[in-house]
Design brief:
There is one protein chain. The chain has 254 residues and is an alpha+beta fold. The chain is 26% helix and 15% strand. The strands form two sheets. Strands 3-4-5-6 form a four-stranded antiparallel sheet, covered by helices on one side. The chain has a two-stranded antiparallel sheet with strand order 1-2. Strand 4 and strand 5 form a beta hairpin. It is globular. The relative contact order is 0.13. The model has no long low-confidence stretch (mean pLDDT 85).
């Protein structure tokens, strides 16, 4: 299944690029190719592979559990990212910058000269310095939400090459099922991904580094509680706006 999915994606991306070239706009088009999460390891060999980011420490706490999709371990959220724009982005360059799909929106807004509303804060950042000017990074922190537990929460973050966890959880692995596997860490677990991509051996940050990390998390919470937020409700607006599941309806897929 995984191999077939990769083949299908490769063919689909090729079809899109061919269409851009045939229409004469390829040279003036910024193209992003990426994914939304790591492999769902409960699908066993059908799910793909997390590479070196296996979440070894989680395996010691919950043998057989997954550190892939559904977790904040590196294997759960780390994906490929390919960006191309002929004549604008130098081909063949590999960046190790800390980026996110959250960055696509502000990057496109910057490229087209759109001015974003200034009455709210954005989790994404403009990647233009990396894409067009060779910058090594555009952020120091990336905050990770545990969306599997009963109360989704900010439970982890990336601080440059460090991954920091105040809470971790295992997800279903191949032929295994896990529930209520949340583990709280105080002080937080810290891994240096430069030397330990498999996240096997926690390290201790210096007091100054720990203050930087804790301050960043506290500031993020303040930003969340003080920023403009929308509220989604399907209670009104008529049938066209309701959440639905109808495989024969063009706007209502399951």
């Amino acid at each position: 299944m995984w191999f077939d999915t990769v083949r299908e994606m490769d063919n689909t991306i090729g079809t899109v690029l061919d269409a851009l070239k045939a229409s004469g706009v390829f040279e003036n088009t910024l193209v992003f190719a990426t994914s939304d999460n790591g492999p769902q390891l409960s699908q066993c060999e059908w799910s793909g592979h997390v590479g070196p980011w296996v979440g070894s420490y989680e395996q010691t706490m919950h043998p057989g559990g997954s550190a892939g999709k559904g977790t904040t371990w590196e294997g759960g959220h780390r994906t490929f990212g390919i960006v191309t724009w002929p004549g604008k982005i130098q081909p063949g360059v590999v960046s190790h910058a800390l980026t996110s799909t959250l960055d696509i929106f502000p990057t496109i807004a910057s490229v087209i000269g759109a001015e974003l509303p200034n009455d709210r804060h954005y989790d994404g950042v403009d990647l233009s310095p990396i894409l067009f000017n060779g910058a090594e990074k555009v952020r120091d922190f990336l905050f990770l939400v545990d969306c599997v537990s009963a109360s989704p929460n900010l439970t982890a973050l990336r601080y440059n090459n460090f991954s920091v966890y105040w809470q971790t959880n295992a997800h279903d692995g191949c032929a295994t099922h896990f529930e209520n596997t949340i583990t709280v860490h105080d002080p937080p677990l810290v891994f240096d991904l430069t030397t330990d991509p498999e996240q096997s051996t926690p390290i201790t940050l210096s007091p100054d580094e720990m203050r930087i990390v804790q301050s960043a998390l506290d500031d993020k919470w303040k930003d969340i509680f003080n920023s403009f937020r929308t509220s989604v409700s399907f209670d009104g607006g008529g049938a066209p706006y309701w959440a639905c599941c109808n495989p024969t309806h063009p706007d209502c897929r399951c």
